[in-house]
Amino acid sequence: MLATRVCPFCKYEWPAAEITIEHDKLAAWEAPFDPEANKPRKLTVTAWFFRKHEKPDKPPSLRVDFVCGMLTISEWVCLEHEGFARQKATRWWSTFKGGGPITVERSTKLSSEPKSSGDQPGSWS
Ligand SMILES: [Zn+2]
């Protein structure tokens, strides 16, 4: 499916390509990062960090940073939003962490431990 979809709560727009997981902590980002190659690349995820992402007057969402060597790829998981955003989040969670629906607050406690507490430079705003 190529159509991008936007979460009505946080306006997060899911990319057409998705991260897929192969086994624990080894994930692949199936995206055309290299416009010249224009084909999916597989990157090994060396760490992932979960953070609560808050916007005024909106339910929080979970921000996941996948660290792939020098590259950090961020995904927003709308665990507490509604409709397809929540369905997608629930599916994301069961794929990556296993188990049923969960709150953002609880999900952040299940992250792998970050190496440092500060924000890292990356492609996110
Ligand atoms: Zn959302």
Explain the overall architecture.
The chain is α+β, with helices and mostly antiparallel strands and 125 residues long. The protein has a domain at 43-116. Helix content is 14%, strand content 28%. It has helices at residues 84-96, 104-108, and strands at 5-6, 13-14, 19-23, 26-29, 47-53, 61-68, 71-77. The strands form 3 sheets. Strands 5-6-7 form a 3-stranded antiparallel beta sheet. Strands 1-2 form a two-stranded antiparallel sheet. The chain has a two-stranded antiparallel sheet with strand order 3-4. The chain starts with a strand and ends in a 17-residue tail after the last helix. It binds zinc ion. Zinc ion binds at residues 7, 9-10, 12, 61, 78, 81, 85.
Terminal CA distance reads 26 Å
Oligomer, anyone? single chain
Q: Which cofactor or ligand species appear?
A: zinc ion
Mean pLDDT: 72
Short key terms for the protein model shown above:
3-stranded antiparallel beta sheet; two-stranded antiparallel sheet; 28% strand; 125 residues; alpha+beta; globular; binds zinc ion; 14% helix
